[in-house]
Amino acid sequence: MSINHIYSRPWKSFDEQLALLRMRGLLIEDEKVALTWLQRVGYYRLSAYWYPFRVFRLEQDAANGAIRTVSTDQFVAGTVFSDAVALYLFDRTLRILLADALERIEVSLRVEVAYRLGSADTFAHLHEDNFHPSFRNKRDHRSGQTAFAAWQQRHQGLVQRSKEDFVKHYREKHGPNMPIWVAIEVWDFGSISQLLAMMKVADQMAIASRYGIGDWRILGSWVRALSYLRNLVAHHSRVWNRNMVSEPKLPPSTAIDWCEAFAGKPDLLSKPFVYLAIVRHMLQRICSGSQWPDRLAQHLCSFPSQASQRKLSVTGMGAPNGWERWWNAKAGQ
After folding, report:
1. Cβ atoms of 288 and 242 closer than 8 Å
2. How far is 209 from 281, CA to CA, in rounded Å?
3. Is 199 exposed, middle or buried (0-12, 13-18, 19+ CB in 10 A)?
4. Whole-model pTM?
5. Which residues are within 8 A (CB) of 286 and not within 5 positions of it... i.e. 6 or more apart?
6. Where are the alpha helices (H) located in 27-146, listed in sequence order?
7. Could you read off the pLDDT of 62-107 as tens digits, one per residue?
8. Any idea where the domains of the chain sit in the sequence?
């Protein structure tokens, strides 16, 4: 089968893209401005932001009789092009705010992991005895590699591809192996998350306590979730109403007060708002005087209004009712 048979939608000029949107019921307030947005951002990227304004209908599967919701090509009455643009700009600012916070969390995790492991072994990341046997020996069902062997391969790849001056300096002056507190600066967030998951329980617990988390498994869950979130942010992907694939675990509300807002609501754990709450929690432990929670709350409260008959809000992000009451509380309150 040729590629043309697999995908048959033709290329369209910007004018044709705009005409298609108008034909489907999207109102264009200013054609020149709309064309500029299509040229600057692109039809496909913007389509994620006008998708919530599509008309949806119920459809029965002929094979099994199941009822499902499907989208049509038509837009809800009153939807204007700027409704999608406003959502795009809201999401863009959200990603910028998250990039700021996630950088601080990632740097803090680098320090904690390197400090804990380095105190016992300068080259702890190279020696499997520094890690929990069950965690390090877990095998990938496809490659057959242990978690530790796969991580070593990833570590070596990151070091070899690095263009950092300090890597070149250490190779020339001290040989190929770098102390963990140097090597960790080459790793990405995913590598840090994987190494943390292999650490001994006592080590993971010590790091979890640093962030006010009483369960090392919760910390691992949060770091995996934040690694996923960072990848979305780094690749400029939509965040605001995405169904998240890495659902974090939450401790009981008796351990962390704000978790009560999500108790008994498993559907909220696949939405981005709980990720924002985790970022807030981590930042309050790393730098308690940070104004980031205030800035993010202000941004959430500025969620754009819509001309469309379908009204969207932060509820679509998985924000629990009354989130404003606890969001600005300081750590420990």
Report:
1. no
2. 13
3. buried
4. 0.92
5. 104, 105, 108, 211
6. 31-40, 43-50, 81-118, 133-136
7. 778 788 888 899 999 999 999 999 999 999 999 999 999 999 999 9
8. 13-78, 87-327
